[in-house]
Protein 1
Amino acid sequence: MSNNTIDTTVPPRGDKRRVRQSPNRASYERDDLYAVLDACPIGHVSFIHENWPQSVPTAIARIDDHLYLHGHPKSRLYKALSAGERVCVSACRVDGLVKARSAFHCSMNYRSAVVFGTGVLVTDEEKPALLDSFTDRLIPGSLNDFRPYLTKELKGTALVRLSLDEYSVKIRTGDPIDDEEDIALHHWAGVIPIESSYGVPVKSANMLDGIPIPDELLAQAKP
Amino acid sequence: MSNNTIDTTVPPRGDKRRVRQSPNRASYERDDLYAVLDACPIGHVSFIHENWPQSVPTAIARIDDHLYLHGHPKSRLYKALSAGERVCVSACRVDGLVKARSAFHCSMNYRSAVVFGTGVLVTDEEKPALLDSFTDRLIPGSLNDFRPYLTKELKGTALVRLSLDEYSVKIRTGDPIDDEEDIALHHWAGVIPIESSYGVPVKSANMLDGIPIPDELLAQAKP
């Protein structure tokens, strides 16, 4: 990850992608973008609706070089996307609390991405394979444990594709950055990591006896 | 929490707050809003900038009946907020992966909130006490372990207050909801919980020896 370095592809001044606060934490590298998106099952998709910004938390998955959003064909979000309206998707994962000697220098460690674009509807032909990839991203290891899609289900699921051309990434890692003159103070400074993990799977109340959890799913879901 | 029930305060049709997808998961109760916001250290703040929706992941804290956003006075976000521009803040926490017998009925368990409003700048007089509350929300138990604020730090920190008047909450909990005819299928169904916890605190590389982590901070940060 290209953290704490400005790479050569910084967008010009005034460009909406350009990170202006703490630009040393910005990245415009595609690998960094993919890593952040892949760590975030939820994106906050914002669009303009009746002169208000409207943000909707939505399941997202990066598949190859595109971002896919998943929703209901009749939702406001899907209608905006299918009408080609401009959207912004932001995603963020918090990795730790950063405790400095001064409240001012407290921070968080995080990985975030912001993507701008317009959506394209996935066609009926493309949908089954992409929905499989989407599901496999969100519930890794589940794919071999479903009954087949019904035609009405394919029709009832909206999948929208977004190009990953306009984006920025921002990543903070490591220690607090205290003022030089504060380092000798008798205050604790450091990082409290935030860890996310899968808990023990809980079977559905209405499940028949004798159905084991698939190995692939369990492998992912082990604490 | 008022989950899976429509309460009596549903906003009218067409209202931007109104949850239209899975309205049975919507809540317009203030207690639910506070619980969701308090569980989310990051909000995705969207505003309109040059006819694009722009969403910025930002540290947030709910203090009493308001939401506070924290940032740099020169940031685009802060400028938009201080100019009274319309903003939308969304926050979401994922609690589990919901594996159904069909891919179509897979889902996630989550708690999310969407707030609409315009910001008001916190005055210099109000700032010290509110910044303390803000810091205590983000790094619980840290407040007694900082040197005092410097005047330039207070000036260099932007704090914006948002009223919590226009909002919606959406919460999903519990089992997958499979089609009746799928329940007898030999596929595993249930929830894989996602658990978030604090790891062992890591002290700053430049910290002098013999400075213990404060008890209050440790109590919060214990895995």
Protein 2
Amino acid sequence: MPQTDAPRSAFDAATAVTSTDGGGLTARLDPGWDVGPGILNGGYLLAVVARAALTASPHAHPVALAASFLRATPPGPATLTLTPGPAGRTLAHSSVLLAGAEGPSLAVQVTTATLTDEPPVYSAAIPPDATPVADCLPPVDDGALPHPLPEVGLRTRVHTRLDPVTAGWARGRPGGEPYLRGWVRLADGREPDPLALLLFADVLPPTSWATGRFGWAPTVQLQVLVRALPAPGWCLVEARANEVAGGWLDEDYRIWDSTGRLVAQSRQLARLPR
Amino acid sequence: MPQTDAPRSAFDAATAVTSTDGGGLTARLDPGWDVGPGILNGGYLLAVVARAALTASPHAHPVALAASFLRATPPGPATLTLTPGPAGRTLAHSSVLLAGAEGPSLAVQVTTATLTDEPPVYSAAIPPDATPVADCLPPVDDGALPHPLPEVGLRTRVHTRLDPVTAGWARGRPGGEPYLRGWVRLADGREPDPLALLLFADVLPPTSWATGRFGWAPTVQLQVLVRALPAPGWCLVEARANEVAGGWLDEDYRIWDSTGRLVAQSRQLARLPR
């Protein structure tokens, strides 16, 4: 149980939703979770949407979210229109439509359930042999890298330690594989949970950066599956594009907790950076 | 162009949607596309939903569908409620709610666009070294197998030739890996297109069958990405579960056309067979 006198986590505050007198839900989208001027991170928005879905669910956790990114969502006041679907003992469905100042921007199918940390009966998702956190790229630009991670809001909210094995591009030596991995945790010290895993499911730069293409790859549709309650500590996040064709790319994420347990998977379809 | 005197494909007929006078859309769900008594195949339903989305899109093809399976959809009359989203030169978004006799059963986020067969600029999705079609399992039960594919409607609509390398279970020798692959094509002779790929994205038995667990694994949420226009001929379909835990499993599909080109990917979260 959290101590009642503990300072509220920045992540919890920035993803909070509020019930209105009319029975609706609102949020105040925090400009600090951006990945570029006025562009909020998709995973951050999913965490807000999941909180809205949980307000009407008998279950405690998001287990599957599928989101269409209709248009960019600006920071500021937003409304969440929640349409509950069937709810049972095992799981509950709902749809959530997030609308910012410029209209509906994110349409999401949500499934909630109650996750556990009971061990898998089968797992083929072995974590990669990643470089230890202490030997990864520095969390902030210390001037040593020709192409550091941009100092966008998201990087000050999520400590991101890229594995140097997949970050040749940061040293001016991009590779041939659209593959990135790194360790992440919330900068506010809050331990990971299913809501934080939604954030982590879109937390790395576009995989095209690994090949030296540094544009922004706008997400078109993103599915995230949360598979277990994560243990405290750093999460290892891996992102890989499997196919780049016709102006489209997919990005597959796998996330393991500090014990090496697979805790989330995501797949997005995105447009190729120009 | 199809010849105007060609007999209509059974798949096209079974997935047709009709505009009503009131501006709505209806379909007549064909009981022949079942995977068990009264249970229609999820991929078949997605093809119907995609046709509904295309009626209001400036684009020709489904490229991303994400569906929440709210409850089983019975055969018979169904309505499709289409909510168009933003539409542009590159892509269009919409939401479709499918309702059968028992109420809303499938809530889907759809993205449409116009696909090509231009070669990929990057691909890491190399097709597996599958057994040639002629040496695969027989398409119908010839009495030689202790556990053949059940003769459900879907198998008479889709020719399914399982690779014996992944079908030890059919011979009474299940393996340890939840992995299946096989060749598929429409029984009506119609060549594959993006709508058929939606069908193929959920066409194999549950991957748990490979390990000797023969129950039904109900889909909770399914995302399908269509990546290119498929060439004529057989498609190779591969399904793999990565993690089975807490009563949940994921199933990842990859589909290649007859030239070995990756043409679709899907991922579903399902409940474990009892």
